[in-house]
């Protein structure tokens, strides 16, 4: 793969909660509270592909100079969301990369 595009944002995805008792057995792929994933555009290695389908549009909002407060968040570049199975709660945090104006 030859990456040619310099991304404008990087993202941190953190696991905040897994089911009612925070046991990894509640999650199909075994995510645990405290697991963290970093990415720019691609799905992070080991991350749930079904949850990424739901997170990716929020990443696109930021890439298009949008504001996550428009979607109910209290912060412009950060939000929480629950996975499609209703088990795992994630925090998504975007950060503008310094090389971009």
Descriptive report:
By secondary structure, the chain is of the alpha+beta class. The chain has one domain (9-96). It is 15% helix and 28% strand. It is built from 1 helix and 4 strands. The protein has one helix at residues 49-63, and strands spanning 9-18, 36-39, 78-82, 88-96. It has a 4-stranded antiparallel beta sheet with strand order 2-1-4-3, with helices on one face. The radius of gyration is 14 Å and the shape is globular. The two termini are 26 Å apart. The mean pLDDT is 95.
Quick take:
The chain has 101 residues and is an alpha+beta fold.
Key features of this structure:
single chain; 101 residues; alpha+beta; four-stranded antiparallel beta sheet; 4 strands; 28% strand
State the helix count. 1
The helix/strand series, from N terminus to C terminus, equals: EEHEE
Provide the residue-averaged pLDDT.
Answer: 95
- With strands numbered from the N-terminus, the spatial order across the biggest sheet is 2-1-4-3
Number of structural units classed as domains:
1
Q: Tell how many strands the DSSP assignment holds.
A: 4
Rounded to an integer in angstroms, the radius of gyration calculated over CA atoms is: 14 Å
Structural class: alpha+beta
* Shape verdict: globular
Distance between the termini: 26 Å
Helix content class = 10-25%
Question: Helices and strands in order, then pairings?
Answer:
Layout (H helix, E strand, L loop, with lengths): L8 E10 L17 E4 L9 H15 L14 E5 L5 E9 L5
Antiparallel strand pairs: 1-2, 1-4, 3-4
């Amino acid at each position: 793969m030859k990456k040619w595009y310099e991304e404008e944002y990087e993202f941190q995805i953190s696991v905040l909660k897994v089911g009612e008792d925070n046991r990894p057995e509640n999650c199909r792929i075994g995510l645990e509270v405290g697991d963290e994933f970093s990415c720019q555009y691609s799905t992070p290695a080991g991350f749930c592909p079904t949850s990424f389908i739901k997170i990716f549009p929020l990443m696109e909002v930021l890439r298009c100079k949008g504001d996550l407060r428009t979607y109910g968040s209290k912060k412009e570049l950060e939000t929480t969301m629950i996975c499609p199975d209703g088990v795992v709660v994630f925090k998504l945090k975007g950060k503008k990369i310094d090389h971009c104006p």
